């Protein structure tokens, strides 16, 4: 699929993996809607890439609908949606004092990471399905989700996060099968340890990142948001990749902790 002259939606597009993806899609000629809760950063990114910012909580149907409508309102065919919005959480199922995992925090992670991804998937696909096919295959567009290695090899304390990302992985193939009827591909990226602002700056953070990178076979470093963005672009451009969960992890297999 040629991205030049289309519109695209990237949730979580104000920073990290989402920002890198928004910039990569824009560099290919797409007009990108940056959907995020961080208005200051979101507006800055949108201005930089010639896109549109929409304040969006992905767990709220009406806000995702507004972001999708903004992509439609660009006047260019809406063909790509990428979900990068999400939160992390670390709590054991039962801690060493015998206290069970807090239910509210578990539900919040599921609401944002899993239900939020489903909201972007279903609402975007419904609009993409209204566009004219771009080729004789009947192709109309692509939806890309973001999971995590935690959804496959969850570590100690990742019960909520792993549940949410495992759910994203689990929806990939059935969504691809469902949306085949309207010419929309669905794939998911499962990142390993990627460089994000969460690790901070300075000597202490660099030492911590080196420790995180130590079990990675090669390259022995953290992945970059730019590498994620390039992979995201490839997966939406190459329509014969469909229903796949693609790891980007340097060969890492997560240890228990």
From TrEMBL:
SUPFAM superfamilies, per the entry: NAD(P)-binding Rossmann-fold domains
Superkingdom field: Bacteria
Signal peptide (UniProt feature, chain positions): none
Entry annotated with the keyword Oxidoreductase: yes
UniProt xrefs under Pfam families: adh_short_C2
Keyword Oxidoreductase: yes
Family statement drawn from the similarity comment of this UniProt entry: Belongs to the short-chain dehydrogenases/reductases (SDR) family.
Cited InterPro entries: NAD(P)-bd_dom_sf (IPR036291), Sc_DH/Rdtase_CS (IPR020904), SDR_fam (IPR002347)
GO molecular function: oxidoreductase activity
Keywords: Oxidoreductase
The organism of origin for this protein: Nocardiopsis kunsanensis
Name this polypeptide is given: Short-chain dehydrogenase/reductas
């Amino acid at each position: 699929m040629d991205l030049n002259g289309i519109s695209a939606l990237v949730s979580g597009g104000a920073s990290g993996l989402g920002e890198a993806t928004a910039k990569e899609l824009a560099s290919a000629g797409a007009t990108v809607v940056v959907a995020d809760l961080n208005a200051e950063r979101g507006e800055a990114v949108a201005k930089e890439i010639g896109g549109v910012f929409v304040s969006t909580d992905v767990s709220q149907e009406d806000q995702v609908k507004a972001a999708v409508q903004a992509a439609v309102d660009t006047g260019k065919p809406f063909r790509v949606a990428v979900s990068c919005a999400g939160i992390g959480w670390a709590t054991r199922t039962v801690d060493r004092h015998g206290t069970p995992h807090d239910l509210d925090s578990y539900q919040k992670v599921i609401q944002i990471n899993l239900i939020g991804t489903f909201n972007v998937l279903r609402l975007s696909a419904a609009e993409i399905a209204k566009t004219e096919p771009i080729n004789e295959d009947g192709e109309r567009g692509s939806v890309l989700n973001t999971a995590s290695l935690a959804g496959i090899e969850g570590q100690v304390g990742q019960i909520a996060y792993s549940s949410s990302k495992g759910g994203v992985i689990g929806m990939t193939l059935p969504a691809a099968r469902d949306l085949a009827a309207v010419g929309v591909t669905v794939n998911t990226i499962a990142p390993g340890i990627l460089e994000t602002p969460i690790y901070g700056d300075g000597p202490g953070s660099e030492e911590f990142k080196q420790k995180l990178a130590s079990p990675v076979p090669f390259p022995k470093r953290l992945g970059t948001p730019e590498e994620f963005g390039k992979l995201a672009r490839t997966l939406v451009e190459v329509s014969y990749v469909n229903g796949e969960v693609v790891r980007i992890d340097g060969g890492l297999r997560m240890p228990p902790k």
